[in-house]
Design goal:
heterodimer, A: Rossmann fold, nine-stranded mixed β-sheet, six-stranded parallel β-sheet, 14 helices, B: alpha+beta, SH3 type barrels, Alpha-Beta Plaits, three-stranded antiparallel β-sheet, 52% helix
């Protein structure tokens, strides 16, 4: 049986160059294989698209799905495009509506991450003027999916990420609807006031999928009584190769990494929640004893931060704060901000580093740890990350509590001073990475989709 | 002579049947074109009944041409009609109840309700029955007529705060545009609303130039339900008129 599926994410699979003319609407969808990557378009960074794209490709190859559609927000480029048998349908809502939508999304994100309380003096965002824009985008996505459904008769809708939670209700279809919640869910920090909103919309799905057991339990504690499963996020191992020597040397030269430097790598978008400040503070302590240590912070803004995306500027503001902190600690020559790096450079970064560090205060999962494991690198992981659920202390990594600067510094020192332990954790991590392989994800996702289809 | 006595009524019979067919065809054509908007189920029933009436009258007139006593025929048709109405009375009751319960019985899709010994989440409201999903994953079909005979308890949390405003819009406007304008316009009532609940519009029916929806809001003071409902209804009427005007200008 082949499933006709419609996927919905906010972030588009690819970002088009703003110089690219919008399609005239008469020639049919733009064919990405006829365009030039990095000139006409770029693959969007970020966990969601990086998971969904290989999953869909593999599902097409295994004939589990046929002719999938992928609806997302894309302010630039053509409305319809095709890549690898996937029909990409882009929703466009105009700059002002995009910004209003982005502001409400940011508020929701803060509440779910415990950065904003309940109905305080600001009130809930639902009765702010921007909420109309938030609804506008979600309704447009639901409308597009419904319209495509009339032509293509999908078997199932698969909606991703918290900012699109309302889409399931808006779709109104009786066909199976699956929602994947990618960010953390901690029932103790989501204010009670938010229950009506979240539960109303969660209840409009046939099943909710979260990234780990603890979020599943939290969702239950929060009062959600519907079907919920957890499936670890996953990556396609085949997409991570060994860089050529020239690429490795080029990477080191570009970012000033010397042969004797001992590299601590943080791969994360620039966002206060990612805890780069904690990593810098801990590094400030480590570097006193290990002057050869170098902290490499890879990543820039997300689709939400980019000017061609939603246009929120928090990445730039956060980078300014981090630079000030680096200056205060006097470690300017030992901390590198790479900004956005290509996939080839990312491979070089993982190959060259001595360890990876995930310092997030809260993190939906943390696939960067799995990426590091593919290269046999030991990981030090914040207990606020979903991936902490698969860390066995001292076997495949070290855990630390976010905010515990000295605890983190101690773990970093431990790995720098004990290469044997570092190698053992790297091997343990490499073995554990199987839990987050595309093959495992495909198996678990197929079971969920199959169960949803079978229930009908 | 005998031949002529038969041939003329036969020709008349055929002509009357042809005219009947033409009238029925024209009626359907005009009816479908004229009555594009509306509940498709009711439209279908009206269309069917009218077609049956046209054909019945046509057939009676046609049979009369052979000099047959039509009184007996009329009596038979009458008895059959009364029988059909009696047989379908339950269905008709349910259809009528659906019409009234939409407006007057305070529950909607997704609510949890209790009626008699049954309780569950409302997952479908069709013209004949309301389908509940119980906690044991059983489906219970409740005839709509029961909702106007029996006490219905809406056990959805906070249901007493809820105001549900039906919306029907015919015109070119897209739902997202309509919804956004309504949400912006009702923002001035935010002080009367329970801010924990967002305004939720649920589209119930959609055609190319028509949609039906309900707007669900949670108010702080239920004693002001009627007043606020009336004001929001006015806003919806204004938004509808604006959008119709805007699209007329475009056209």
């Amino acid at each position: 049986m082949s499933v006709r599926i419609c996927v919905n994410t906010q972030t588009p699979l690819v970002r088009f160059s703003p110089d690219l003319a919008p399609d005239p609407g008469t020639r049919g969808p733009a064919v990405l294989s006829e365009m030039v990557e990095d000139r006409d378009y770029q693959f969007s960074p970020g966990g969601v698209t990086r998971m969904v794209y290989p999953l869909l490709r593999r599902m097409i190859n295994e004939k589990f799905v046929s002719d999938p559609c992928w609806v997302s927000l894309s302010p630039t480029g053509p409305q319809e495009a095709v890549l690898d048998g996937i029909r990409l349908s882009h929703v466009k809502i105009g700059k002002n509506a995009t910004r209003g939508y982005g502001r409400i999304k940011e508020e929701l994100w803060k509440v779910i991450h415990g950065l904003k309380g309940g109905a305080g003096k600001d009130g809930q965002p639902f009765w702010k003027k921007d909420y109309a824009d938030f609804t506008y985008y979600n309704r447009h996505s639901a409308d597009r999916m419904a319209r495509l459904d009339r032509d293509l008769d999908f078997d199932l809708f698969y909606i991703h990420d918290f900012q699109q939670l309302a889409v399931g209700h808006m779709l109104g279809s009786l066909k199976p609807k699956l929602f994947r919640w990618h960010i953390p869910f901690d029932a103790s920090i989501v204010p009670e006031d938010w229950k009506p909103f979240l539960l109303t919309y969660f209840n409009s799905y046939d099943m909710v999928m979260v990234s780990c057991q603890r979020y599943l339990e939290a969702l239950r504690r929060f009062g959600f009584k519907g079907a919920v499963k957890y499936v670890f996020p996953y990556i396609d191992k085949a997409a991570y190769g060994s860089p050529a020597k020239d690429d490795l040397d080029g990477f080191c030269a570009k970012f000033g990494i010397g042969d004797k430097d001992r590299v601590i790598l943080v791969v994360a978008r620039l966002d206060p929640m990612k805890g780069q400040d904690g990593a810098i503070k801990a590094f400030g302590r480590v570097v006193r004893d290990h002057p050869d240590a170098k902290l490499v912070l890879a990543g820039n803004g997300s689709f939400s931060s980019s000017k061609d995306g939603i246009g929120l500027s928090k990445a730039e503001r956060w980078k300014d704060e981090l630079l000030r902190l680096v200056r205060e600690l006097g470690v300017q020559d030992r901390v590198v901000f790479t900004g956005h790096i290509s996939h080839r450079e990312l491979e070089a970064a993982y190959t060259r580093c001595d360890m990876t560090l995930l310092p997030s205060h809260l993190e939906g999962f943390g696939l960067v740890v799995i990426e590091g494991w593919l290269y046999g690198k030991p990981a030090i992981v914040s207990s606020g990350a979903g991936v902490a659920d698969i860390i066995v202390e001292g076997e495949n990594g070290f855990l630390f509590d976010p905010g515990d600067t000295e605890g983190l510094a101690e773990k970093v020192r431990g790995l720098l001073e004990d290469p044997e332990t570092a190698a053992r954790l790297g091997r343990g991590g490499h073995h554990s990475s199987e839990k987050c392989s595309l093959e495992e994800g495909l198996k678990r996702e197929s079971e969920v989709l199959g169960a949803l289809m079978g229930n009908r | 002579m005998q031949y002529q006595e038969f041939i003329y009524p036969a020709i008349k019979f055929v002509v009357i049947i042809l005219i009947t067919w033409l009238v029925a065809w024209l009626f359907n054509l005009v009816f479908v074109g004229w009555y594009k908007i509306g509940m498709s189920l009711i439209r279908l029933h009206v269309q069917r009944v009218a077609t049956i009436v046209i054909w019945t009258v046509g057939l009676i007139l046609a049979i009369e041409q052979f000099g047959l006593d039509i009184n007996l025929l009329l009596l038979l048709i009458g008895i059959l009609g009364v029988g059909a109405i009696l047989a379908a009375r339950d269905v008709l009751q349910n259809l009528a109840a659906k019409y009234f319960s939409d407006v007057y019985i305070p529950f909607k899709m997704g609510d949890t309700i209790r009626i008699r010994e049954h309780s569950g989440k409302v997952i479908e409201i069709n013209p004949v029955a309301t389908v509940l999903l119980t906690e044991k994953d059983e489906l219970i079909s409740i005839p709509n007529s029961l909702f106007i005979k029996e006490a219905t308890v809406n056990i959805t949390p906070q249901a007493w705060k809820e105001i549900i405003i039906p919306i029907a819009f015919s015109g070119h406007a897209e739902v997202p545009e309509f919804e956004t304008r309504v949400i912006r316009a009702i923002n001035k009532f935010k002080l009367h609303m329970d801010e924990r609940f967002p305004p939720v519009m649920t589209v119930k029916k959609r055609e190319q130039n028509y949609f039906e929806a309900v707007l669900t809001l949670m108010i702080k003071d239920p004693s002001r339900k009627d007043e606020i409902t009336s004001k929001i209804n006015n806003i919806i009427t204004e938004v509808s008129a604006e959008l119709k005007g805007k699209h007329h200008k475009k056209d």
